[in-house]
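Figure S4 source data
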Amino acid sequence: MGRGPIFLDDVDCSGDEERLIDCEHNGISVHDCYHYQDAGVYCSPRGLP
């Protein structure tokens, strides 16, 4: 479980976005969820497997 502010909820990505924030979402800090529903993302530089 995470802690702190929740920035994105209901994120819908097509796969063509360059940044997570470019995906469709309800708005920054607009949410109806809790930390027990958290998901995480690890990012790496392009070109790495």
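Figure S5 source data
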Amino acid sequence: MDTIIKDDYLPIIRDDHLMVRHIFRYLINYLYEHKENDHLDMDFINAIIIFLDTYLIPVHFKREEEVLFKEFEDLSIPIYVQSEIKNIIHRHMTISNFVSELSLLRRQYETGSNSKINEIHSIMGLLTLSFNKLVIEQEKLFPKIDQYLTDLLKEKIKNGLNKFNENIIIQMVQQHIIEAYKKYDNHQ
């Protein structure tokens, strides 16, 4: 399913949604193929959790909340649209909670608690449903807001999203350098 976000100032958000939908398709396929299994593909589950913990929540959600939705706050948009934005932020928190629960269940499973398989599958299903609803809500929201945006504000949003990405990359590089120094110091 393609995204309906076509605005020139939102290519980062659009591309994120396409990528994340692709990841969640893998998750849906996994759930369908493994619903009757008495074991888990931990490599797959770990990869999903790493993606959610290192990209979806701290980068994508944060980018939307700290840049995009912040710019929308000063617009004279109807209350029902403001409410939709609040619902999206709430869904971000719900998804974050599901990821935390999935991480906890994974750790319990890895320490021998095989009874967690159904709970893990259940949380993965809830994650998939919640994210699907989130994307649909956002894709309905953006056209409603677009009419309130000037070209200048669209450019400001686009620049803000790009600056956010630059800062994330800088933080990642700095973190890798710090980790490399720590390893180096430990070997001397």
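The helical segments are 11-34, 42-73, 79-110, 117-146, 151-186. The chain is about 80% helix and 0% strand.
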